[in-house]
From TrEMBL:
Residues 50-226 form the Metallo-beta-lactamase domain. InterPro entries: Metallo-B-lactamas (IPR001279), RibonucZ/Hydroxyglut_hydro (IPR036866). Its EC number is 3.1.4.55. CDD domains: metallo-hydrolase-like_MBL-fold (cd16279). GO terms for molecular function: phosphoribosyl 1,2-cyclic phosphate phosphodiesterase activity. This is Phosphoribosyl 1,2-cyclic phosphodiesterase. It holds the Pfam family Lactamase_B_2.
Length: 261
């Protein structure tokens, strides 16, 4: 079995559709659920090891949908609700089935907040602050957290198996050193939160900025993710696919998208 990187969720904080919204993007997703987007996260499946990257508030549904029934550890990119809100969902798996705590790799700056938010998970998760630039070896692939540009301490993750993949779910551009580390990566999955004006320019990117970042990294493929679809200018999947059609190697992320490594 090949190593795979699967996107569990590809939406920004509100998800698509949002319960309070009836824009064209949310209408499209209500009519056609394959265009709906749960909050962002991924799973690196190495066969014997399954590494969860971010625990979105939609985690339970994501694991059920993708028929994932075991986890080896959890890697959090940063301490924002749309990326950690589902941590509590692993409690009964650990207590009733696994009988052994899961290592939770998390930003050093998030340890105290984690302990304050989830005191009841003390015997379920073992917090282990990750280090930027350190290469975590999981056998068939390595995983290296690299600095991203976001409102709080945030990692993007460089995954190297037979192919290389950089996952930068929440970032605005990349620090120079990170940009250098991901040069020529086979697949870049990156933040494209905004369509139209970017009103959070120090945290996220627009579709245009994400495409430009893909070009700057020389990535073989650029996959746009963390899509709000209805910030600034609401857009449907059909419209957005037309808009990006002229950029070779650029495509949209979808929940459930699987990439071979
Ligand atoms: Zn996010
Ligand atoms: Zn909407
Ligand atoms: Zn964030």
């Amino acid at each position: 079995m090949a190593a795979t990187f699967k996107l569990l969720g590809t939406g920004a904080g509100p998800g698509v559709p949002s319960f309070y919204c009836n824009c064209i993007a949310c209408q499209e997703a209500r009519e056609n659920p394959r265009f709906s987007r749960t909050r962002s996260g991924a799973i690196l499946d190495l066969g014997e090891k399954k590494i969860l990257i971010d625990a979105s508030p939609d985690l339970r549904h994501q694991l059920l949908r993708e028929k994932i029934d075991e986890l080896s550890c959890i890697f959090l990119t940063h301490w924002h609700y749309d990326h950690f809100g589902g941590l509590g969902e692993v409690e009964f798996y650990v207590r009733l089935v696994r009988h052994e705590p899961l290592t939770l790799y998390l930003p050093p700056s998030a340890v105290e907040e984690y302990q304050a938010a989830f005191p009841h998970l003390q015997d379920v998760l073992v917090p282990e602050p990750w280090q930027f630039g350190r290469c975590y070896d999981f056998g068939r692939a390595t995983l290296t957290p690299l600095p991203a540009n976001h409102s709080i301490e945030t990692a993007g993750i460089l995954v190297v198996g037979k192919k290389s993949l950089a996952y930068f779910t929440d970032t605005c551009g990349l620090p120079a050193e990170t940009l250098q580390r991901v040069q020529g990566v086979d697949i870049l999955i990156c933040d494209a939160t905004f369509h139209g004006e970017n009103w959070y320019p120090h945290s996220h990117m627009s579709v245009e900025q994400a495409i430009a970042l893909g070009r700057a990294t020389g990535a073989g493929k650029t996959i746009l993710s963390h899509l709000a679809m209805h910030y600034s200018q609401a857009v449907t999947v059909r419209q957005l696919e037309q808009e990006i059609a002229s950029y070779p190697g650029v495509s949209l992320a979808f929940d459930g998208l699987e990439l071979e490594l």
